């Protein structure tokens, strides 16, 4: 995937979400097949148990869902201790405010802009205020915390995400469904950079 900074890998267990994808052995094979860092998104039950194995398989970044984690602070610290970026994901209905005190424990926060489980879903505009509130919290605490969005990100939606405060963008169908995936990545990056430069939050980032 030419031009992408990371490869975002969705791990689903058919329990936390209603879909089944891949597991540790496939991630291990992927890590051997590419030099692009792997960004693992664990949409699974019991990430406290499984996350360390994905780091050993080659993941440079591991995202767990706070709704599934038994001990999110302990898990984030374990992920970091093993040398990967620790990221926490929130489903659309999960508010950010109860987790404000956890933010310093993280390297990235993922706001889901669709219900997790399937690709190709339409972007949920009602998530934009949540992205803005999250960016405000990050800025208020002076954190160097990446804010990722995942779900329905495309040429038609990426500018709104960037303007709201996101700075890491997961694009699936918009890239893999394009005639020229590399050009799609370039176009998305250009739109995001332009929107960020014009946004108030981008000046202080």
TrEMBL record:
Keyword flag DNA damage: no
Active site as annotated: 10, 150
Xref: InterPro entries: Aldolase_TIM, Ribul_P_3_epim, Ribul_P_3_epim-like, RibuloseP-bd_barrel
Protein keywords: Carbohydrate metabolism, Cobalt, Isomerase, Manganese, Metal-binding, Zinc
Catalysis: reaction(s): D-ribulose 5-phosphate = D-xylulose 5-phosphate
Binding of substrate, residues: 41, 117-120, 150-152, 172-173
Entry keyword Isomerase: yes
Entry-linked Gene3D superfamilies: Aldolase class I
GO MF annotation, one: D-ribulose-phosphate 3-epimerase activity
Catalytic activity, EC: 5.1.3.1
Pathway(s): Carbohydrate degradation
GO biological process per UniProt: pentose catabolic process; pentose-phosphate shunt
PROSITE patterns in alphabetical order: RIBUL_P_3_EPIMER_1, RIBUL_P_3_EPIMER_2
Binding site for a divalent metal cation: 8, 10, 41, 150
Cofactor: record remark: Binds 1 divalent metal cation per subunit.
Cofactor names: Zn(2+); Mn(2+); Fe(2+); a divalent metal cation
Pfam families given in the database record: Ribul_P_3_epim
GO cellular component, as recorded: cytoplasm
Family: Belongs to the ribulose-phosphate 3-epimerase family.
HAMAP family tied to this protein: RPE
Function, in words: Catalyzes the reversible epimerization of D-ribulose 5-phosphate to D-xylulose 5-phosphate.
Descriptive protein name: Ribulose-phosphate 3-epimerase
Organism taxonomic ancestry: Bacteria, Bacillati, Actinomycetota, Actinomycetes, Kitasatosporales
Gene that this sequence comes from: rpe
């Amino acid at each position: 995937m030419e031009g992408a900074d990371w490869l975002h890998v969705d791990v689903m267990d058919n329990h936390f979400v209603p879909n089944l994808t891949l597991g540790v052995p496939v991630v291990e094979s992927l890590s051997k097949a590419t030099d692009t860092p792997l960004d693992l998104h664990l949409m699974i039950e019991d990430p406290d148990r499984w996350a360390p194995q994905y780091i050993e398989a080659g993941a440079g970044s591991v995202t767990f869902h706070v709704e599934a984690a038994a001990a999110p602070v302990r898990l984030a610290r374990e992920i970091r201790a093993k040398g990967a970026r620790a990221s926490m994901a929130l489903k659309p209905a999960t508010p950010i405010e109860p987790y404000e005190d956890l933010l310093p424990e993280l390297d990235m926060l993922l706001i889901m802009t669709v219900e997790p489980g399937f690709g190709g879903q339409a972007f949920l505009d009602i998530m934009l205020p949540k992205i803005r509130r999250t960016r405000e919290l990050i800025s208020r605490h002076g954190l160097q915390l990446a804010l990722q969005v995942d779900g329905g990100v495309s040429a038609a939606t990426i500018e709104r995400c960037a303007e709201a405060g996101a700075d890491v963008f997961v694009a699936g169908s918009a890239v893999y469904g394009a005639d020229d995936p590399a050009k799609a990545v370039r176009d998305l990056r250009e739109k995001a950079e332009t929107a960020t430069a014009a946004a108030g939050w981008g000046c202080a980032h």
